[in-house]
Design brief:
Layout lengths: L2 H15 L8 E5 L2 E4 L1 H4 L8 H24 L5 H14 L4 H5 L4 H22 L8 H10 L7 E12 L12 H17 L4 H8 L14 E2 L5 H7 L11 E3 L2 E14 H26 L5 E3 L5
Length: 302
């Protein structure tokens, strides 16, 4: 539809709406889509001002423009994501999923859920083009407004381990599995202490998934480690090797690679700043959509 045709279309609706005041009244046109009074009726009451109503219509216009792009880009939420959100909605309302499905508004709920997830997908798609950076000045200003405290620090540790939970007992029937594992780990410890690479031995012998990384972990929160690990780590300095000890279903030797204190408050501040910039970027992107769109608002109906 050309802009001139849309203008005539809008004029025709405006003329017909002068004498109509039904809930389904057309209050705006966005490209080829119509926005009716029903779209905002639930958010409007007798005390709502005209400016507030215009704001609600603007939101609906942005929604229509986003849905057009979602269709153009072929963005569709995964069925598993829809089901997860529906399950959450049911749980939050004290219902089973079957009870929610029995609701006569279930189809509308599914539609709204799919729409919300699609818009979230659109935002992720658009933000791929965003180059979000934080300056130290921005971080300092945010921290000045919301200072950190010592309670916000979290101790983290990075370790390497060789874990053994099973071993061939065919040649040592007189020894228990645990004794054989302890003996084997002691032999590995002797090799490490005389210069053999911990990483190479972990890749050869460790039965923990971390063997792929030479037994190395990522950064771990100390307070979340199992008790057996805490007891051993408390006696070690960085670079020192533990004696074989039992933890979980097996035995292991570990060493501390590094330690650090993480300011969780600082991480949260940075996350908030990044999110704020992302929201602003997406908001401006949606605003730009209006430049190429045909938009007509019948504010005299408000």
């Amino acid at each position: 539809m050309t802009n001139s045709m849309k203008a005539l279309f809008a004029f025709a609706f405006a003329f017909s709406l002068n004498s109509l005041a039904t809930p389904n009244s057309i209050i705006a046109i966005v490209n080829d889509e119509l926005i009716t009074l029903d779209a905002i009726s639930e958010q409007v009451n007798a005390s709502s001002t005209k400016a507030q109503k215009i704001k609600l219509i603007d939101h609906q216009i942005d929604l229509v423009l986003q849905l057009e792009k979602i269709k153009k880009f072929g963005i569709k939420p995964k069925l598993s994501s829809i089901n997860t959100m529906l399950s959450n909605i049911a749980s939050q309302n004290g219902l089973t999923l079957a009870q929610l499905q029995a609701n006569n508004q279930f189809d509308e709920i599914v539609k709204n859920v799919s729409q919300r997830l699609s818009i979230r997908g659109l935002k992720q798609f658009v933000l791929q083009e965003a180059n979000i950076n934080l300056t130290q000045a921005e971080i300092d200003i945010a921290l000045a407004k919301n200072p950190s405290s010592s309670e916000g620090f979290n101790k983290q540790i990075k370790i390497a381990q060789i874990a053994i939970s099973s071993i061939d007992q065919s040649d040592s029937l007189l020894q228990s599995k645990d004794n054989l594992i302890q003996q084997f780990l002691t032999e590995l410890s002797d090799k490490i202490n005389t210069g053999t690479s911990f990483s190479s031995l972990a890749k050869l012998h460790s039965q923990d998934p971390s063997y792929k990384n030479g037994g190395e972990s990522g950064w771990l929160d100390e307070n979340r480690l199992p008790v057996e690990f805490k007891q051993q780590l408390a006696q070690l300095k960085v670079g020192e090797l533990s004696p074989p000890f039992q933890a979980g279903q097996g035995w292991r030797i570990i060493k501390i690679l590094d330690k650090r204190s993480v300011d969780n408050h600082l991480i949260a501040i940075k996350s908030q700043l990044v999110q704020s910039k992302q929201n602003a970027f997406f908001k401006n992107w949606v605003k730009e959509l209006r430049k190429d769109a045909y938009i007509e608002i019948f504010d005299h109906k408000l």
